[in-house]
Amino acid sequence: MLRSTWILVLVACIGGSAAAQEAFLLPAPLAATWTDAAPFTVMPETPLLVPDGDLNAARIASMLAHLLSFGEATRPRVVEARAYARSERHSSLSPIVYDRQAPDSLGAEGYVLDVSPERITLSANEPAGWFYATQTLRQLLPPAVEYNAAFPVPLTVPSGRVVDRPRFSWRGMMLDVARHFFGPADVRRVIDLMALHKLNRLHLHLSDDQGWRIEIPGWPRLTEIGGRTEVGGGPGGFFSLDDYAALVQYAAERYVTIVPEIDLPGHTNAALASYAELNCDGVAPPLYTGTSVGFSTVCVEREATYRFVTDVVRTLAEASPGTYFHLGGDEVRELSPEQYAAFMARAQAIVAEYGKRVIGWDEIAEVELVPRSIVQVWRPAEAETQARIRQAVEAGATVVLSPADRVYLDIKYDASTVLGLSWAGLNSVRDAYEWDPTTLLPGVPATAIEGIEAPLWSETISTRADLEFMAFPRLAGVADHGWAPAAAHDWDAYRLRLGAQAPRWTALGVNFYRSPDVPWASTPRRD
Ligand code: TNX
Asked: Is 378 touching ligand 1 by the criterion CB < 6 Å?
């Protein structure tokens, strides 16, 4: 407490100077140093220089130019570096430079951000690193830039150097678009907010008992019937393949990989209601709009089921450039262990045939997995589950950590939270941050941990405002876990960094939960 109060005083008193800049970065970077040099001042004439012919750099720099706009007419120009060097008349302007020189040790997502009064340089090995350097630069700019309207000048960036790379490769969120449907605009909003905090996997839960949300050629009733409702009986909805392709592209431009999930063999009532032949008795059940789990399964003895799985996997594999296909596999109460294992063996083979890596909820650890599969750990630790997961890892699987009692975004913050569920207890902002990914699974080595993912199940969540309220601020804690070095993990320091995000989130219109555990900074004026 003493220490955090002291840091707070420091931030408040010397706001713009050397020691405090770190307080604005979330996730925390690997290393940052600040100097007493004057800040860099962004002007409407500031050129953004990119390597000649590099379309990725040009796209990322354009996003930054947009953020730095003093209105449409004065948007900073993105210019190819060589052409710029030839033109004398610009040479006195301090540029922002995207550069390819970065140490190999920073990998594909790492970067160096150098700020001096004369120049800002964003150096990376790969475009993803430029993108993350840009997000860091963004967090060093005044939050008012997010209003995307007139904002106070001068616009300054503190002088210093950030050297950064992520701790884990999988930094994810899952959105359940099946229990309640969220359309493309909502998904784009989620991607934007993920990208601000350097998250890079958006797992879309595209099917469940209450809805089928993706067009599959040859199976039109999946969306015509199965897509037509949701929990509570609302209208539902679905993504056409064009919608899906546009989302994949939007995500890719923000270095987010979409991970499609079709939950099988259970959680399938919407598909069963659409096609009678997927049911063992050949009778389609009615659509379901309640919130029970575990009551449905496709008929694992019928060949129609495997034609269905093949068409679904092929369609989504072709539409998803990422390397993953999520098979679900959770909460199947209507099959024997042998039936479950036999189905999973065939389903995994189909996923492998279409060139994707299998990921599934931790129940899949009970069956033999194809090499390099990923087990998404969600159930509260029980000895038997843990032993299964350990065995799967010994046989070559890796894990993504989604412990329900830590990172489920649909679990209530406290007893007074109106939205959400409480089957896994309560997840305060502090609970969601104060745990250690490397000790969650005894006997599983850190090298087998791909990373962390926070699921947002939507039984009780139906609007964008509700979604944001449950995701923020806890998703920021997941982002920090996924990116920041283990040594930076400290609740007292984190709650200050979290509080410092409030002005930016407010400027962006995020409906975040003002947890009393966090000293929220006040909001900037709009004018
Ligand atoms: C468990 S997590 C489920 C979901 C529910 C969720 C609610 C998992 C693999 N299955 O079907 O939506 O709890 O928190």
From this structure: yes
